[in-house]
Amino acid sequence: MSLSRAFTMIEVLASVLVLMVGMLAVVGMVAWGIKQASRAQAASTAMATALTVIDDPEPLLRADWTSFGGTAQGYLNGYYVRRSETSAGTSSDLATNGLVSLQIQVDVYESLDGLPVASLSTRRLVRSK
Amino acid sequence: MNDRRGFTLIEILVAVTLSMLMVTVAWNLFSQTQRVARRAQARLQLHAAAKSVYESLRRELIAMQQHCGLWLESKTSPQGVELVFMTAAMDEAGYQMKGTWGNVAVTDLVWSRWRWDGATRRLLCARNVTSRSWPFNTSIDGVPANPSATTETLRNDIQSVRFWPQPRRFTPGDALSGLDDNRWQLTTAGGAAVGAGRNLGDWSDLQQRLSPACLGVESFKIELVLAGRDAGSGNTRTRSADGTFDDMFCAHGIRMDGVSSANVTDAPATVAAAIAGFPAEIGERPAVLRLAFTLYDQAADVRIPFSFSIALPGPSYTP
Fold first, then answer.
1. Which residue on chain A is closest to B312 by alpha carbon?
2. Terminal CA-to-CA distance of chain A, rounded, Å?
3. Is B225 in Cβ contact with A59 (below 8 Å)?
4. B98 — contact with chain A (CB < 8 Å)?
5. Which residues of B touch A48 (CB under 8 A)?
C-alpha cells in the first residue's frame, strides 16, 4: 500500500496565502524603491527651488502662495516652501546709504506636514523701500 | 484496494477559481506597479529636464558681464518665445572679459539663444562663439583680406567690435532679425570706429545650430523684473514673453547699462559718476529673470509645472 497522499485543500490554501503574502512583499519593495528613487531625484529640484525662492519671493507660479509679514509660503515645483525674512540689525552706515540687512531663511518640505528636503539661509543687503 | 483517486469536479472548480483569482490579483498588482513605475520614471525625467533647463540658464546668466546684451521676444505667429544673450568670453584667469572696455575681439563674443517653439512644444538652444570665418576672409574698408582667415588667424590690431550704438534699445515693433542688421561697429584696437556698422553674421549661425534642449514643453513664460521702479507708482516694472502676444524687449548691459567710460574694476567714484549719467538705462537693467514652464510626458500622462527665478548680477532686487 502506498503511504503517499495528495495535498489537502487546507494545505493548498495555506500555501496560496503564503505565496500571495510573498508577492505583496515583493511588490511593496518595488514600490518603495521607486518612491525612494523619486524622492532622491526630486531633491535636486528642491535645492533649485530653494535657490529660486531665496532670490525672489514672488516666483511666477505660486498657487496657494500666502504672504504674511515677512513670511511667504505655499506650493512650488511640487514642494511646500516657506520663506521668511527678518531684520538682521542695522547700522548708521547702512541707514545713511539707504540699505537694510536682511536674514533670509528658506525651508523646502516634501509637502505640508512632510519631511524637510532642502534648507538655505543667507544674509542680504537690500535697498530700503 | 487502491486508495488513490482523482480530483472531484468541485475540487477542480475551486482550484481553477482560486488560480484565476490569483492570476487576476497578480496581473493587477503587476500592471499597477508598472504604471506607478512608469509615472515615477516620467516624473524623474521631467524633474531632471527642468533642473537642466534651470541650471543652464542660471549658469549663462550669472556669467554675464556689463558688456552684454539681452533680448526677449514674444511671438504669436509662429508661436514662440526667444531669449538671446551675448557676452564676451572671460580671460584665462576668469577675472574679467577679454579685450579693453568697449572693444571686444569678435572672436571673443559668446552668443546664446534659447527658443521655445509653441508648435512643436520644444525648447531649443544654440550657443557659439562668433564665427571666425568672418570678416577675416573679406576685404573691409581698405583692410586687406586675411589670406589665412579660414585657419583662424586674427588681425588683433584692427578687428575688434564695439556694441553700437550704446545703449541699443529696440522698439516693440523691431524684428529680432534686426540683431544682425548692421548693429556692429568695427573699431581699431584703440577704439576708433572703422567704417559703418555691419553684420557679423552670427544670427544665421545661431539659426542653424539650434538643437533641442528639452522636449514636451507645453507652455513657457519668461518675465524680467527690471531694477528700476515705476517713477509714478513706485511699483516693480516687468517685461514678459509667453507666446500669447507680440512684444520685444532689449536690455543692453547687465551691470552698468549704457556706461561707456567705466569698468567694474574702476574706483567706485568713477563708476558712480558714469552711472549717474544714465539713470534711465540703469532702470532698464534686468534684476531677476523669472521662468515658468510646464513639462508633459504624453506616454505616462504626467504633467508638471515648474517655476524658477534667477537673480542677475548687479545690485540686489527689492520686491
1. A55
2. 102
3. no
4. no
5. 50-51, 54-55, 308
The torsion defined by the Cα of B175, B179, B180 and B181, in degrees rounded to 10, comes to 60
Three cell numbers, residue B96: 574679467
* Domain count of the fold of chain A: 1
Element (H, E) at B122: strand B122-129
pLDDT for res B217:
95
Chain B residues with CB under 8 Å of A35 CB are 40
In chain B, pLDDT over 90 holds for what percent of residues?
Answer: 15
CB B149, CB B136: distance < 8 Å? yes
Give, as one character, the DSSP assignment of residue B95: S
Nearest CA in chain B to A39: B44
Set of cell numbers at residue B201: 553674421
Alpha helices by DSSP H, chain A: 9-55, 92-96
Contact B192, B211 (CB under 8 A): no
CB contact under 8 A, A1 and B3: yes
Q: What is the pLDDT of residue B96?
A: 56
Q: Is B124 within 8 Å of B216 (Cβ atoms)?
A: no
Is A90 inside a domain boundary? yes
pLDDT tens digit sequence for B183-238 = 444 555 455 555 555 444 444 555 556 788 889 999 999 998 877 666 667 677 78
Nearest CA in chain B to A77: B306
Q: Which of A86-95, B154-163, B229-238 has the highest mean pLDDT?
A: A86-95
Mean pLDDT of A65-89: 85
Q: Is B303 in CB contact (< 8 Å) with chain A?
A: no
B 51-90: CB under 8 A from A: 51, 54-55
Cβ separation B307–A62 shorter than 8 A: yes
pLDDT for the residue B259: 38
pTM here is 0.71
Contacts of A125 in chain B (CB under 8 A): 316
Residue A102 maps to a domain: yes
